[in-house]
Design goal:
rod-shaped, mainly alpha, 0% strand
Length: 91
């Protein structure tokens, strides 16, 4: 996978809060459309679910970003191994 593609998938906490404030569409921002429709149908759990999301938004963003950061670290390790091998071949 491409490093710039992975970096483009990283979600921002500020934007997630903005999506929460605008029509409660933060699950759509995360790409979780089933949860988004459920959120809308229940009117944000009649406000309780929406209020909980307000306080746990940071954790939700971190959980969405965790696999992306793991993939980025793995990619960087692979690239550094390739660089070391290339340098060894030049010597």
């Amino acid at each position: 996978m491409n490093k710039s593609l992975l970096q483009s998938k990283i979600k921002s906490k500020d934007i997630a809060y903005l999506f929460w404030f605008i029509l409660g569409s933060h699950y759509a921002y995360f790409g979780k459309w089933r949860l988004q429709f459920l959120f809308w149908i229940t009117l944000g759990g009649i406000g309780i679910w929406a209020l909980m999301d307000l306080f746990f938004m940071s954790n939700k963003v971190d959980s969405v970003n965790a696999p992306i950061f793991t993939a980025l670290e793995k990619l960087e390790k692979q690239q550094s191994i390739k660089r070391v091998k290339q340098m060894e071949m030049k010597d």
